[in-house]
Specification:
The complex is a heterodimer of chains A (387) and B (344).
Chain A: E1 3-4, H1 15-27, H2 37-56, E2 64-67, H3 70-85, E3 92-96, H4 101-112, E4 116-120, H5 130-136, E5 141-145, H6 159-168, E6 172-176, H7 188-191, E7 195-199, E8 210-214, H8 229-232, H9 240-278, E9 282-284, E10 295-300, H10 305-314, E11 317-318, H11 334-338, H12 343-346, E12 349-353, H13 360-380
Parallel strand pairs in A: 1-11, 3-4, 3-5, 5-6, 6-7
Antiparallel strand pairs in A: 2-8, 7-8, 9-10, 10-12
Chain B: H1 5-16, E1 23-27, H2 42-55, E2 59-63, H3 65-81, H4 88-97, H5 100-107, E3 113-114, E4 119-123, E5 129-133, H6 150-154, E6 156-157, H7 165-174, H8 196-202, E7 210-213, E8 219-223, E9 246-251, E10 256-260, E11 266-277, E12 287-292, E13 300-306, E14 312-321, E15 328-333, E16 336-343
Helix pairs in contact in B: 1-2, 1-7, 3-4
Classes of the chains: A alpha/beta (387), B alpha+beta (344).
């Protein structure tokens, strides 16, 4: 039996999601923009899903825009806000240094078009401090983008506090909540943000669909041009089945959140403590709390993470090193780098992210096989580990 | 697995024979930004993955950029800047594929690393690992593998070494591999346009400019760096004379490049360093063998004996043209690799 410990990369869609995808494709195939019966049925599916997704983030359904996923939501938020605010003269963007590439590379693209950008450092626990943000804010700052939970280390940022700082300076605040949605409670009003993006496949929904919550009154100039779908904020015929599946996943996440959070954090702690105890030369990356309940990130001294990942996969255990690039090869973690860790920690770390199917038996198997694998790799490495 | 037909067939044959195969591809230079390679591009890695998927074994990409740069590329650049002509594929075999890659593979529980090389491995009755030419003499790559130690040979498999290239393509078609008709790669993988001088210059090494002299020491022209020259080179000297002139000597210290007629290129002997003796122990007495002094050279008969400090000297029966420092000399007894070293 293979053990899947990479739920921050993606999650297996639930049975209810899969049935809903199939039934929607079969029965509600109409174009939601059509006036007739078939269009109305498809539209109704989207309306119901919008309510479900809104409930997941304690939002008004009218402020939820369906997107093609987390990356698209981040792009719509940042590019859309930048373009809308540019005529007002504000030309400065701020993000944390540990954002997902969807945010980092969007800022880079805007920088090439003349925007000033600032990446905020994080401390060794992986947290952006209020003072750091405060001192980076200028009168020109148009938007601040800081992720809710980090994908590699799971740490949760003090978003409410950070968003308040942006609001004082009349800048918009976006948070990429892709890794927190479905794992911990989200209340857009309590967070005080203006824009919040999520992705369905991170909480047992289908890939290729997500949502951006836009505070009422916030104007965006969407980068994607076309029809008037999603109140003119996301052009293109809606992915009706995907949206329906996301709605089902959202309902299930709400129902199971408290129980799963408790179960997964207990399993995660068991794994974390077990590995740190059983394997010499290991260290936890990031703070233990506040953190999403399913994630831990551990460095293995004198062990190339790339080899460890492969050796574990050959043992039937799927983990990751954080972000994989398009060719599937491994790069040193920009998140751990930003936390100030030296190369031997940024290149030698593994991310374990737990989810629905994981059991104590799985965790104990990982703890049992890891020490032997690490020792074997260490003993065979005559050429120096990259450092 | 480079994504080419040879390594694909090698992997497929082993899988077909029932071996437990793990596909590994090496990423040797950055795939985005300043990409300069011809082999193992994203397309090639994609091809390798498709072969693995079709045959049902796992496939991984190992990022060996730093190791490749520290060993193969830095040696390549340093050799050219020193007035020598490097042989990066041989360094890649001994310093990367059958060292780092073999170590990694052993970490994954593998007994051997198999590659798509055209060469054969055998074992003598007394247990010594032997290296032999491929059955396809035209494709033979044993010249690039001479520096493998006994331990490295013990961990190596060359499944296509006993096949001809056309037979390999036939196997690829039989196995339904999409790469069956993919073109061969010829050039040095990290300099696909073959412009070594520009590549070396781009790595900002010190390479002496100097004079181009005739054999009497008269200056014929000046040049911008010894890395632009290789022994036996005729083109690109920037000299117009009545008869063809060849580079016969490169002095990296002074920057002097000496040219002369073809007859001046010939030498009857050479010495080699870092010699690896494969089929036998280092011969203290003269031993009759043939010596191959570059990839496209027909091994020429003569005799070899070992010197101190892992060096050797070789005397040709007939003088050979363009014996080039930095290239390998590999000693053969028929198909058998006796040993080899680096020409001084």
């Amino acid at each position: 039996m293979r053990i899947y410990l990479d739920h921050n990369a993606t999650t297996p869609p639930s049975d209810a999601v899969i049935s809903r995808l199939a039934s929607t494709l079969r029965e509600e195939f109409g174009n939601p923009s059509s006036v007739h019966h078939f269009g109305q049925r498809a539209k109704a599916v989207i309306d119901e899903a919008r309510s479900a997704v809104a409930a997941l983030i304690a939002a008004d359904p009218g402020d939820v825009v369906f997107t093609g996923g987390g990356t698209e939501g981040d792009n719509l938020a940042i590019r859309g806000a930048a373009e809308a605010l540019e005529p007002g003269g504000r030309k400065h963007l701020i993000a944390s240094a540990i954002e997902h590439e969807a945010v980092l590379n969007t800022l880079k693209a805007l920088a090439r078009r003349g925007w000033k950008t600032t990446l905020l450092p994080v401390d060794e626990s992986g947290i952006v401090s209020a003072d750091t943000l405060r001192s980076a804010m200028t009168d020109d700052t148009a938007l601040v983008s800081i992720m809710h939970a980090n994908n590699e280390i799971g740490t949760v940022q003090p978003i409410a506090q950070l968003a308040a700082i942006a609001r004082e300076r009349r800048a918009l605040f976006h948070t990429d909540a892709v890794q927190s949605a479905g794992k911990i409670p989200i209340d857009v009003k309590a967070l005080g943000v203006d824009l919040l993006s999520i992705s369905a496949h991170k909480f047992y929904g289908p890939k290729g669909v997500g949502a951006l919550w836009i505070r009422r009154g916030v104007r965006l100039q969407p980068p994607l041009t076309g029809g008037k779908q999603e109140r003119s904020r996301r052009a293109g015929t809606e992915n009706v089945a995907g949206i329906a599946g996301m709605g089902v996943a959202a309902r299930e996440a709400i129902a199971k959140m408290d129980g799963e959070a408790a179960r997964l954090s207990a399993l995660r702690d068991r794994l974390e403590d077990g590995v740190l105890r059983a394997v010499t030369g290991t260290a936890l990356n990031g703070t233990r709390s506040p953190r999403v309940p399913n994630t831990t990130n551990i460095s293995f001294d004198r062990t190339e993470a790339e080899s460890l990942l492969i050796a574990l996969d050959l043992e039937g255990i799927a983990v990751s090193t954080g972000s994989a690039c398009s060719s599937g090869t491994l790069e040193p973690s920009h998140v751990l780098k930003a936390m100030g860790f030296p190369p031997h920690r940024t290149q030698n770390s593994l991310r374990f992210s737990l989810g629905v199917a994981n059991t104590e038996t799985d965790i104990d198997r990982v703890i049992a096989v890891l020490p032997g694998i690490v020792e074997k790799l260490r003993s065979l490495t005559r050429t120096p580990v990259r450092a | 697995m480079s994504g080419g037909v040879d390594s694909s067939v090698a992997a497929a044959l082993l899988a077909e024979q029932g071996h437990d195969v793990i596909g590994l591809s090496m990423q040797l230079y950055p795939q985005n930004g300043n990409h300069f390679g011809s082999c193992c591009t994203l397309d090639d890695l994609h091809d390798a993955r498709r072969v693995a998927t079709a045959l049902g074994f796992p496939h991984y990409i190992l990022n060996l950029e730093e190791r490749f740069n520290d060993t193969v590329i830095s040696n390549f650049v340093h050799e050219y800047a020193s007035g020598r002509t490097p042989l990066p594929c041989a360094h890649c075999n001994s310093d990367l594929k059958f060292s780092t890659l073999l170590e990694r593979a052993r970490g994954f529980g593998s007994d051997s690393v198999a590659t798509g090389h055209y060469a054969r491995i055998d074992r003598s009755p007394d247990g010594r690992w032997l290296l032999k030419r491929s059955v396809d003499r035209d494709k033979d790559q044993s010249y690039f593998l001479f520096s493998l130690t006994q331990d490295q040979l013990a961990g190596a498999l060359f499944p296509v070494g006993s096949l001809s290239k056309p037979a390999v393509r036939t196997e690829a078609r039989r196995l339904g591999l999409t790469v069956a008709d993919k073109a061969d790669s010829q050039e040095i993988c990290f300099v696909p346009d073959g412009d070594y001088a520009t590549f070396v210059a781009s790595r900002r090494v010190d390479s002496h400019g100097g004079a181009i002299l005739d054999e009497h020491g008269r200056t014929l022209a000046t040049h911008g760096g010894v890395h632009r020259f290789t022994i036996g080179q005729r083109k690109g000297l920037g000299i117009a004379t009545g008869m063809p002139l060849y580079v016969v000597k490169i002095d990296a210290e002074s920057g002097d490049v000496t040219v002369g007629p073809r007859s001046s290129l010939e030498r009857a002997s050479l010495t080699a360093s870092s010699v690896n003796w494969v089929s036998a122990d280092a011969p203290a007495e003269w031993l009759r063998v043939s010596a191959q002094i570059r990839h496209r050279h027909r091994a020429a008969p003569g005799r070899v004996r070992a010197l101190d400090d892992r060096r050797a000297e070789f005397e040709f029966d007939d003088p050979q043209a363009a014996i080039t420092p930095g290239q390998a000399v590999v000693f053969y007894d028929e198909d058998l690799v006796v040993g080899g070293g680096w020409i001084e």
